[in-house]
Design goal:
3-stranded antiparallel β-sheet, mainly alpha
Length: 195
């Protein structure tokens, strides 16, 4: 019986140890359960925060896509507007160039007509000069040459070369050269006999 008592005592000690271990395990389990509940609560909170951030990010991306689409449309509109303006400007430039060419041609014609009329007026003045009051030579003593000098007058006391000019016309290079030769007394007489 002693053996039974020792066995029973050992069993009680074992049961006490087991109960103590069980209580310790229960405390650990309770602690683990609290930690699990806390972790689950944190995880739920983190999940909510993540979902909230994800939603905001999706809204931001969606807003950026809308803005990008609007900007792309705006760029296309501005590009089309610039192309229209460029076409309009090119047409305007072409029209201005055409007008300029026409104006240039018109001016050339006017200048040509003016020069032509000035030349004709000069020829008329040259022809009528001996009959005008400003002409101080006797027309009967004058001979018309035309080029390079208009008249030569053979008076009793002098031989005179006469160039008639009207308006703002000037002596040409050949006429200036002849004038300078006369002024420098470089006029000669030469008699040529033909047999």
């Amino acid at each position: 019986m002693f053996l039974f008592e020792i066995s029973f005592f050992l069993c009680i000690i074992l049961v006490a140890i087991l109960l103590f271990k069980l209580k310790s395990l229960k405390l650990n389990a309770d602690l683990l359960l609290k930690q699990f509940v806390n972790l689950q609560s944190q995880l739920t909170s983190e999940k909510t925060t993540y979902e909230h951030r994800e939603e905001k990010l999706h809204q931001t991306i969606s807003g950026l896509r809308i803005i990008l689409s609007e900007e792309q449309q705006s760029i296309k509109n501005k590009e089309a507007e610039l192309l229209n303006k460029e076409a309009h400007l090119l047409n305007s430039i072409a029209q201005v160039e055409k007008n300029l060419e026409e104006e240039t041609e018109t001016r050339k014609k006017v200048v040509s007509q003016k020069k032509s009329s000035e030349v004709r007026l000069g020829h008329i003045a040259e022809t009528l000069a001996p009959f005008l009051d400003q002409f101080e030579f006797d027309p009967e003593n004058c001979t018309f040459l035309g080029k390079p000098i208009d008249y030569i007058s053979f008076d009793d006391d002098a031989v005179t070369l006469i160039e008639i000019k009207s308006g703002k016309s000037q002596l040409n290079a050949k006429q200036r050269h002849i004038r300078d030769l006369v002024k420098n007394n470089q006029v000669n007489w030469k008699e040529i006999r033909i047999q």
